[in-house]
Amino acid sequence: MMKNHFLLLVAMMLPLVASAYDIEVKNADGVTIYYNYTNDGAELAVTFCGTYYTDYPDEYTGKVVIPEEVTYMEKTRKVTSIGDYTFANCTNLTSVTIPNTVTSIGEYAFYWCTGLTFISIPNSVTSIGEFAFDNCSGLTSITIPNSVTSISKAAFENCWRLTSIDIPNSVTSIGDGAFQNCSGLTSVTIPNSVTSMGDYAFCGCSGLPTVTIPNSVTSMGDGAFSYCSVLSSVTIPNSVTSIGNYAFYMCSVLASVTIPNSVTSIGEYAFQFCHMLTSITIPNSVTSIGRNAFDEIAVSTIVSLIENPFAIYGSISSYKTFTLNTFNNATLYVPTGTINKYKATEGWKDFNNIVEGVPSGIKGVHLDSDKDYPVYDINGRRLEAPQRGINIINGKKVVVK
To answer: pLDDT per residue over 352-377, tens digit each?
Structure first.
């Protein structure tokens, strides 16, 4: 009993020291790097000093080269991951070299490393965590290796000095806000491997002039390209079935957009404040258009290929689908034989000028031969197949010889 009391007294006298890391070892350059044991102690993950990542600001500074393996207490272990928050808020960190033994970069790993100008990500890395490089405003370029299969939520958000990004064809999804507010981006390549783009994926990329979305993409999240203020044209492929809420909101110079016949819904505020749009063609596949979708746009021509119109928000609604000026002054062209339907349908009936037939002057477009497009003659009558002369195919003027 006396021995137990003695041990308890000694324990109470010891300083209360806790640590988030297991070991600390200097690399070849003399830089101290902190590690945690992983995989039952067989491997190592780079981590931060202290119990919380903000305990020791700038514990990593300047140039840091992470070794492939570390020997400690006569045992050598491979470095296989960079843990969550490892370099977060290390504003004086300028360069990091990651070895090809590392397979994952954790969440917030380089969060707010504003001085980071160089990062080497090897082909061994298969996952990059959420917010991993958020606010790395010093990065001007970065190479995503073709071992990565998804770009996580906000992974490169607020990297406003990035000028271009090549997404490898191993990537199948781009997460919510992945490149949000990357205002320096002037070009981006989205490969055919990508099938989904998350909410606000490229929101605020105010330097991006044009975007080509590959025909592998089936869904575009809400606000995907909102606030892309110099985006002038965009082609939406025939694989996309819905245009999300706020998808192109505040794209103030967007003058050309193609809505394919695969799209069934156009979300709320999708094209609001796209001031340069003067004409819109809505394919017959569309079955819903959200509130304020085309509000605050002075559209002069609307071509609706919808044969069975559904209700939209009208001119006196607070959520009007089209701006009041459009309802009053634009010409709405509808398929031949449907004018009475439009005049009896909520919202559409508010147009002052409804004309049967499709106008001439619609630009030609390349069409994939294996797609089943709706075909109309120049008067807006639905055809079984294209005829010699002018046809309207997928809302575009095509001449068949």
So the answer is: 999 999 876 554 333 343 455 566 65
